[in-house]
């Protein structure tokens, strides 16, 4: 973890942040490690927002700064091969956070999955339609808002009621989703970051 990068992200200091990302990249630091530091910094942004030290404008700016940083990361380029099959992914309805989802999408693609990205604010019916159409082994639902936990629960229940959960594992992820929340929602697994997601999905696909 780069303390300088975590602090630059937390302080929304774009100049220092971009310089540090370049420096770490030049030193050969793995890109997912760089993303971890950025994610840690985003956690601090969130805390400052909760404590009213930051406001919505800073949240918006944090997203812009994060996206600028990831543009410097070459590993985030997509490979195009799909040797592990299809992964359907989307952010649950009423939630528009997509930075984490987009990272998972690119990292999964660069690890050989074909990702059907349904976008943000995705209604249950759209998840069900995509599962019927693409028959994925794994479906991912991103959720950054505790107020949307019940939406994810409803969506997973609907997938089960439609008889589509037998052959499909459901992964959930996003900042506030821990194991207890995942259990409440009826998910098969909670993934804390993009690398975990790749590891779990490869395991499901190989069994
Ligand atoms: C940036 C941000 C925003 C941006 C989002 C921009 C965008 N395009 O995404 C904007 C400004 C739009 C925003 C809006 C809001 N936000 Co906001 N936001 C954040 C912030 C600071 C960072 C989120 C982020 O991008 N993190 C970085 C990424 C890389 O991490 P990540 O999303 O967790 O993803 C990683 C893993 O979780 C995992 N993962 C993620 N998704 C998935 C999915 C699957 C399937 C898997 C397997 C893995 C996985 O892999 C990713 C990569 O490692 C968080 C704070 C936080 N700590 O998360 C608050 C936060 C989520 N927001 C919050 C709030 C309250 C809001 C608003 C309600 C504010 C308002 N008053 O309007 C709105 C809600 C809008 C809506 N309806 O969705 C709260 C939620 C609190 C709660 N209890 O629910 C947080 C926690 C801040 C806080 N501490 O108060 N926000």
TrEMBL record:
SMART domains (UniProt xref): B12-binding_2
InterPro entries (UniProt xref): Cbl-bd_cap, Cobalamin-bd, Cobalamin-bd_sf, Met_Synthase/Corrinoid, Meth_synthase_dom
A Gene Ontology term for the protein's cellular component: cytosol
A Pfam short name: B12-binding
Superkingdom of the source species: Bacteria
Molecular function per GO: cobalamin binding; metal ion binding; methionine synthase activity
Enzyme type, top EC level: transferase
Keywords: Cobalt, Metal-binding, Methyltransferase, Transferase
Gene3D superfamilies: Cobalamin-binding domain, Methionine synthase domain
Gene Ontology terms: biological process: homocysteine metabolic process; methylation; tetrahydrofolate metabolic process
Domain B12-binding N-terminal span(s) in chain numbering: 1-85
EC number of this enzyme: 2.1.1.13
Bilayer-crossing regions: none
Every B12-binding domain range: 84-207
Family the UniProt entry places it in: Belongs to the methylamine corrinoid protein family.
Database matches in PANTHER family: METHIONINE SYNTHASE
Name of the protein this chain belongs to: Methionine synthase
Species of origin: Clostridium magnum DSM 2767
Upper lineage: Bacteria, Bacillati, Bacillota, Clostridia, Eubacteriales
Name of the gene this protein is made from: metH_1
């Amino acid at each position: 973890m780069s303390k300088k990068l975590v602090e630059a992200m937390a302080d929304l200091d774009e100049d220092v942040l971009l310089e540090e990302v370049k420096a770490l990249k030049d030193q050969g630091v793995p890109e997912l490690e760089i993303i971890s530091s950025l994610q840690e910094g985003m956690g601090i942004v969130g805390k400052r927002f909760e404590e009213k030290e930051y406001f919505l404008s800073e949240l918006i700016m944090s997203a812009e700064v994060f996206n600028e940083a990831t543009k410097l990361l070459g590993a985030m380029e997509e490979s195009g091969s799909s040797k592990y099959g299809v992964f359907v992914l989307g952010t649950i309805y009423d939630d528009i956070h997509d930075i984490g989802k987009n990272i998972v999408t690119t990292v999964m693609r660069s690890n050989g999955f074909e990702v059907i990205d349904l976008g943000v604010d995705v209604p249950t019916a759209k998840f069900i339609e995509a599962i019927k159409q693409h028959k994925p082994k794994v479906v991912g639902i991103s959720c950054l808002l505790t107020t949307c936990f019940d939406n994810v629960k409803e969506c997973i229940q609907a997938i089960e009621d439609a008889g589509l959960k037998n052959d499909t594992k459901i992964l959930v992820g996003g900042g506030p989703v821990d194991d207890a929340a995942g259990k409440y929602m009826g998910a098969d697994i909670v993934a804390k970051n993009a690398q975990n997601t790749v590891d779990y999905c490869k395991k499901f696909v190989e069994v």
